[in-house]
Design brief:
Chains A, B: Belongs to the PurK/PurT family. Two copies of one chain form a homodimer. By secondary structure, chain A is of the alpha+beta class. The first copy, chain A, has helices at about 15-25, 60-65, 80-90, 100-105, 105-115, 130-135, 225-240, 275-280, 285-290, 325-330, 360-375; strands spanning about 10-15, 30-35, 50-55, 70-75, 95, 125, 140-145, 155-160, 175, 180-190, 195-200, 205-210, 215-220, 245-255, 260-265, 305-310, 320, 320-325, 335-340, 345, 350-360, 375-379. In chain A, helix 1 (about 15-25) packs across helix 9, helix 2 (about 60-65) packs parallel to helix 3 and helix 3 (about 80-90) packs antiparallel against helix 4 (about 100-105).
């Protein structure tokens, strides 16, 4: 018999909560997991078969780590691409492929890719310096995004008028037209090496304005089927154009006139898919494993309405994390706690999530609101 | 704030598949897990925060291990009770309590407990020697069970006539009247320290006659509600009478005239509850944690029809395990693979399980039959 998933070693770059939840699924397939992360207390530390504390952006560290695995994947985009390219050259399987990660690492290149492939997206301009910003044709206010290394709301700012430019990032950036959107939505698509593709049902996101982080996620969306289908087609088009192997999360805006505009991509399990663990027949983590091991993709249908609440560190709390209101939360039916194994909390740090599953959508949203006000990560 | 689940250390005696699935849930609560198991390759080895290779029946080993934990639980009954008693005396929480494990370890004492508490069970007689068997008033054929250390079909035999006694166990045994049963069923009940109790819906088991092991498990049962309620009441009565903290699996026979007779107890997560992971709102593993940490018990309702197939090592195969038919199995919608991380297979060894979830019961059973014939553990 050929080598199968239970014989293989999966190397994961990054040992945070995404890696942790990926390992929770990998256990079911007897998969051997290796994790590289710079944090000695990374959430994956005790779960991986092998944990290495080291830089995921350093060529030698990533290359030597990758040599130990059969298949290499990521849980964060900011990794050393050159090492992954070298590993691919030497015959290792890297999924998503290094060229996909390279493209997505740079929001400027990502936007150009959208343009070249007729993917609807907000009008944009690439700028390298504040000087170039000053000469931009874009009307205020606009959104300024650093091309590299932005995540969890970092590397993004709103430029209201010319004076703001003096405080703007002085690095290669992307100017983007402010979109008057009604809602942010996401579709996660999986594609295996055979080219089979499946999308998860479209979900709706609600943001915490202060932290610029997803606070609530509601699945499935109640937008008209036509719009949902359109979003799924866009996601599949991007996955095909990229020729990606693995998961691809596609975040989009629904504009006030019902148009869809692609905002950003993530070539991996994503915050907008956490509710799939309990809310859908297959979870995004299981699906990612199926995709990268070229196995049949699972059934993405929703089992029930699901609302996901990100559990963010409370403001003004820094230190060893405590979970206030845990018992009250657990007393509610259909509630699933996911703590990420992070010892220390800080304001807006992603410490865990909670998913509420309920046959009745209103009731799911009500429970989620109650939990949002009840469960607090303090120090 | 008082110490909470995420601050505590759970010691688990036994590091097999039940411990493994318990840890998969414990991850979600940031629970620190410590495992003691004599097998250097135990399924829990790489998942526990701390793994100790040692005997779970040796006083010193269990006692010293237990001292490192805040709460101690078991995944197998054959453990050193005296060490657990000593740990309880010194203030450690042991759930299920040592006296419950002691009672259940001995099938003779278990049967006497049923009798004393008016729990319906098959007529029985305790015998210490073959000589006593020869003088038993029980008519042939009858069932002979060793009072101690039987598991997975071991320690049980059918005595068809007097001549069989010469080959019988020569140890303290239990003679039990042969029950002409229609079906074996099980109810799992959870009880926390507050005395809150919840039962999972009754499930039906189908046995592999050759191995005397559960092959199929169907949830929920389609027996009349009255019978199901009766089974749940019996399970709750036993849990209350035992004053147990934790899970209790109650296996029963449904006789041809619709009577319920309790067969055996297991004070822990149990094979008859594996389908709860995907088939019910709360899983038996989550529920066990909730019970032993005195947290609110979860919603035990079924989400869907679920059929669980035990994945047993094929006959005539001994050696490093291979999973034939895995891809074909994964191509079916609503199928969940759970491999137990055991490197070596042998005939009838429990190597994993598969759960099929389907809104249509017939379809779930059909898929399960297909999987039973498709997915094989070979060497």
């Amino acid at each position: 018999m050929a080598k199968q998933i239970s014989d293989l070693k999966l190397g994961i770059l990054g040992g945070g909560q995404l890696g942790r939840m990926l390992i929770q699924e990998a256990i079911n397939y007897n998969l051997t997991t290796l994790v590289l992360d710079p944090d000695t207390d990374a959430p994956c530390k005790h779960l991986a078969n092998y944990f290495e504390c080291g830089s995921i952006t350093d060529f030698d560290t990533v290359y030597n780590f990758g040599k130990k695995a059969d298949i290499i994947t990521i849980e964060i985009e900011k990794v050393n691409i050159e090492a992954l390219e070298q590993l691919e050259k030497e015959g290792k399987q890297v999924f998503p492929q290094s060229r996909v990660i390279r493209l997505i690492q740079d929001k400027g290149v990502q936007k150009q890719f959208f343009k070249e492939n007729n993917i609807p997206t907000a009008p944009f301009q690439l700028v390298n310096t504040r000087e170039e910003m000053r000469h931009s044709r874009f009307a205020f206010p606009y959104i300024l995004k650093q091309r590299r290394d932005g995540y969890d709301g970092k590397g993004v700012m709103k430029i209201n008028h010319a004076a703001d430019i003096e405080q703007a990032f002085d690095a290669p950036c992307l100017i983007e037209e402010m979109i008057d959107f009604e809602k942010e939505i996401a579709v996660i698509v999986a594609r295996n090496a055979n080219g089979d593709m499946k999308t998860f049902p479209m979900v709706e996101m609600e943001f915490n304005a202060e932290a610029n982080l997803v606070e609530f996620l509601i699945s499935p969306s109640t937008y008209p089927e036509a719009l949902q289908n359109k979003a799924e087609v866009i996601a599949k088009n991007i996955a095909s154009s990229l020729n990606i192997t693995g998961l691809l999360a596609v975040e989009m805006f629904v504009t006030r006139n019902g148009e869809l505009l692609v905002n950003e991509l993530a070539p991996r399990p994503h915050n907008s898919g956490h509710q799939t663990i309990e809310g859908n027949y297959v979870s995004q983590f299981d699906q990612h494993l199926r995709a990268i091991f070229n196995l049949p993709l699972g059934d993405t249908r929703s089992i029930s309405n699901a609302v996901m609440i990100n559990l963010l560190g409370e403001k003004n709390h820094n230190g060893v994390a405590k979970y206030q209101g845990l018992e009250k939360t657990m007393a509610i039916d259909g509630v699933y706690i996911h703590l990420y194994g992070k010892k220390y909390t800080k304001p807006f740090r992603k410490m865990g999530h909670v998913t509420v599953v309920d046959q009745n959508r209103e009731s799911a949203v009500q429970k989620a609101n109650y939990i949002k006000n009840t469960l607090k990560v303090i120090s």
